[in-house]
Amino acid sequence: MQKIYHFSSIEELKDSIDKNVKDLDSQIELHSKLIGDKIRESEKTNSEELSDLKDKLNPEKSKEQKSDSKKSSNKKTAPTKRKKSKRGESENWIDYENLHLYNGVGTRGEIELYFKSLEEMKSDSEKLKATQESLEKLMNSGIKKDLGGIGYEQNDGTFEIAFIKTDSKREKFTFKSIITVGCAS
Fold this sequence. Notes:
Elements: E1 4-7, H1 10-43, H2 51-57, H3 59-72, E2 93-96, E3 99-102, H4 107-140, E4 148-153, E5 159-164
Antiparallel strand pairs: 1-4, 2-3, 4-5
């Protein structure tokens, strides 16, 4: 994702941000499909391994299933709790110097990384959309649309803009025409 934006007009900056939002949205859709395919593929082999990840995809559906299963079973069982690390991931991650490694081979680690990437992209998309709205409000407030400048997107999603003088000089309006005057003799 681009952090520095050079623009010769507000419209150019807006178009650049629009393009980034569209790119992010297409990547989000691609990752969502990929996660769904991986989960469906793993259902054929082992559905228990990825049950909590499926709950992340469909939180409403998993709540309904849990309430249905509680109603159908009259036994009181102790709830099983999975240990979560401080990053919100499963306990299977190991820190090794500057790396964070998944302890195991299989699709679970891969899917967890896709989820993490998906959540980050959704967050970035929301921040860019908020920037788009602010830019629209700025344009509607009457700022000159032909101002050039530079923009910087910070990690927290805030956007800083500095307007600069453009090197190109505006042409003055001139009217050129050939006038012929007919003389009657």
